Amino acid sequence: MSDDAVSPEEVRHVAELARVDLADDEVDQFARQFADILDYFETLDEVPEVDREADLANVMRPDEVRDTLEREEALQNATKTEDGYFKGPNVS
């Protein structure tokens, strides 16, 4: 892909959308960099597809039923509680 694949006007438009002020030399630099990025994407298009699906394995453990804490025991180290529940700071 040639360096003029991305025009300076397109770079200025993207910079305006991103609210970035660019000097003229920066516009030229970004145009070249954008062209390089597009070249990389063209290279990725040349990678052959894989015709097999990956072997998937369930890595999750099975659920186990266990006894839970009593409410008082769960709240015993809480800094603040209210009506039997944890109380956190107000969010504004």
Automatic annotation (TrEMBL):
HAMAP family: GatC. PANTHER family: GLUTAMYL-TRNA(GLN) AMIDOTRANSFERASE SUBUNIT C, MITOCHONDRIAL (PTHR15004). It is an enzyme of class 6 (ligase). The keyword Ribonucleoprotein does not apply. NCBIfam families: gatC. Its EC number is 6.3.5.-. Heterotrimer of A, B and C subunits. Belongs to the GatC family. GO terms for biological process: glutaminyl-tRNAGln biosynthesis via transamidation; regulation of translational fidelity; translation. Allows the formation of correctly charged Asn-tRNA(Asn) or Gln-tRNA(Gln) through the transamidation of misacylated Asp-tRNA(Asn) or Glu-tRNA(Gln) in organisms which lack either or both of asparaginyl-tRNA or glutaminyl-tRNA synthetases. The reaction takes place in the presence of glutamine and ATP through an activated phospho-Asp-tRNA(Asn) or phospho-Glu-tRNA(Gln). InterPro entries: Asp/Glu-ADT_sf_sub_c (IPR036113), GatC (IPR003837). Signal peptide: none annotated. Keywords: ATP-binding, Ligase, Nucleotide-binding, Protein biosynthesis, Transferase. The gene is gatC. This is Aspartyl/glutamyl-tRNA(Asn/Gln) amidotransferase subunit C. Pfam families: GatC (PF02686). GO terms for molecular function: asparaginyl-tRNA synthase (glutamine-hydrolyzing) activity; ATP binding; glutaminyl-tRNA synthase (glutamine-hydrolyzing) activity; transferase activity. It catalyses: L-aspartyl-tRNA(Asn) + L-glutamine + ATP + H2O = L-asparaginyl-tRNA(Asn) + L-glutamate + ADP + phosphate + 2 H(+); L-glutamyl-tRNA(Gln) + L-glutamine + ATP + H2O = L-glutaminyl-tRNA(Gln) + L-glutamate + ADP + phosphate + H(+).
